[in-house]
């Protein structure tokens, strides 16, 4: 009898000790009514599963089994009761095919104010083609929605997610900290409007690694107030390249500082490595950027700084950019340009670019000599520089 009691006590103790570690509570969306048929609106089931995981005092998992789930606009909000939530997706989340459902809401799936959330796997299908056609027809259309947004969040992982045909940007990291994006696959047609792959703004310590991005706008775009960004191992194209900017749209704007972009291949892109600012007054800046080990395969503008961005002549004709660009290094950049001018620094006459460094750059144009063009740009070179530097 005593033996049994001791045994029972010991096993109870073991259970109590091990339970929180081994048995993360799992919330399967199908158990809450989600239907993997691609047409039943499963939004409510996803929100209930999230509420369970978010409300759990121990680590929790939201599980999305294989299949296709229609999800209309969904906001997954914090604060949660634990800081270890895994979202394991084996299926596909599909946005409503009628673009009027998301309309001009700006967002499809959002995570706001969460800490310690990791998404593994899964596919997001933004079904953007209807909206793109509407926009192409010149009719008046809603602005659309970004597919996946994290805002006001920290300790986030997005690993192995595929995102296709977003109405607007595919993945957005906004006002967040310590975010790791890796093994992500973005696909949208080369002519789809405003379908940036990954957009980062007002965030710090974001890393984007080992990802493949084919889209109609920037593969990666970096907005104001971004610091300590690390981008490495990206295949980009079709697309508009990797862009810091547009910056300086507003007079008061926080700067971009400490950005590394390493080992990127650009295939048939409109730009390669770009920094872009509006030709408007602004106190914004870009400081401390390293572009290293890039391969260009027929990029139209492999290396470009454009401080005269003024689309549709919106409040900028005759003005110059106030954004100060300094300490930008291009190291070991090679391959082919699809246009004669492979290196273009078109900087502000009011605030010229300073501290530009070119080191081992070899860009060719259709087996002919390529050219460089500099306006208000100052810097130094080392190693082989082809085309001849204009700094
Ligand atoms: C620059 O950012 C990297 C991460 O991308 C970080 O490791 C490094 O400490 C930052 N440097 C400074 C001076 O903050
Ligand atoms: C620059 O690249 C071209 C094309 O890849 C190559 O033929 C050429 O030898 C390179 N120049 C130098 C000096 O390495």
From TrEMBL:
Leader sequence residues: 1-23
GO MF, one annotated term: polygalacturonase activity
UniProt keyword list: Cell wall, Cell wall biogenesis/degradation, Glycosidase, Hydrolase, Secreted, Signal
Compartments where located: Secreted, Cell wall
Family annotation (SMART domains): PbH1
Protein family according to the UniProt entry: Belongs to the glycosyl hydrolase 28 family.
Protein name per UniProt: Polygalacturonase-like
């Amino acid at each position: 009898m005593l033996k049994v009691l001791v045994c029972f006590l010991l096993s109870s103790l073991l259970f109590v000790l091990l339970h929180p570690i081994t048995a993360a509570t799992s919330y399967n969306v199908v158990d809450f009514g989600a239907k993997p048929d691609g047409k039943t609106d499963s939004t409510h089931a996803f929100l209930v599963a999230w509420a369970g995981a978010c409300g759990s005092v121990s680590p929790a998992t939201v599980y999305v089994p294989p299949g296709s789930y229609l999800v209309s606009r969904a906001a997954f909000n914090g604060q949660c009761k634990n800081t270890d939530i895994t979202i394991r997706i084996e299926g596909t989340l599909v946005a409503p095919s009628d673009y009027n459902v998301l309309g001009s809401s700006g967002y499809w799936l959002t995570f706001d104010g969460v800490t310690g959330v990791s998404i593994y796997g899964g596919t997001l299908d933004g079904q953007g083609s209807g909206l793109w056609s509407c926009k192409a027809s010149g009719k008046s259309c809603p602005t659309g929605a970004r597919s996946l947004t994290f805002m006001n969040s920290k300790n986030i992982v997005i690993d192995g997610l595929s995102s296709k045909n977003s109405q607007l940007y595919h993945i957005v990291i906004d006002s967040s900290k310590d975010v790791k994006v890796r093994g992500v696959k973005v696909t949208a047609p080369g002519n789809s409007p405003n379908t940036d792959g990954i957009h980062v703004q007002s965030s710090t310590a974001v890393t984007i690694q080992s990802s493949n991005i084919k889209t109609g706008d920037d593969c990666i775009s970096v907005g104001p107030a971004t610091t300590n960004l690390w981008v490495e191992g990206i295949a980009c194209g079709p697309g508009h390249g990797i862009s810091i900017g547009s910056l300086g749209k507003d007079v008061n704007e926080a700067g971009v500082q400490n950005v590394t972009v390493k080992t990127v291949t650009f295939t048939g892109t409109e730009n390669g490595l770009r920094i872009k600012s509006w030709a408007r007054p602004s106190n914004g800046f870009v400081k401390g950027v390293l572009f290293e080990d890039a391969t260009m395969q027929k990029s139209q503008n492999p290396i470009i700084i454009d401080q005269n961005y003024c689309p549709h002549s919106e409040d900028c004709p005759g003005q110059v950019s106030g954004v100060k660009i300094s300490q930008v290094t291009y190291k070991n950049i090679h391959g082919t340009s699809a246009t004669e001018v492979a290196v273009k620094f078109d900087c502000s006459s009011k605030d010229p670019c300073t501290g530009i460094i070119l080191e081992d750059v070899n860009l060719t144009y259709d087996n002919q000599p390529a050219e460089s063009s500099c306006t208000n740009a100052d810097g130094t070179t080392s190693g082989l520089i082809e085309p001849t530097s204009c700094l």
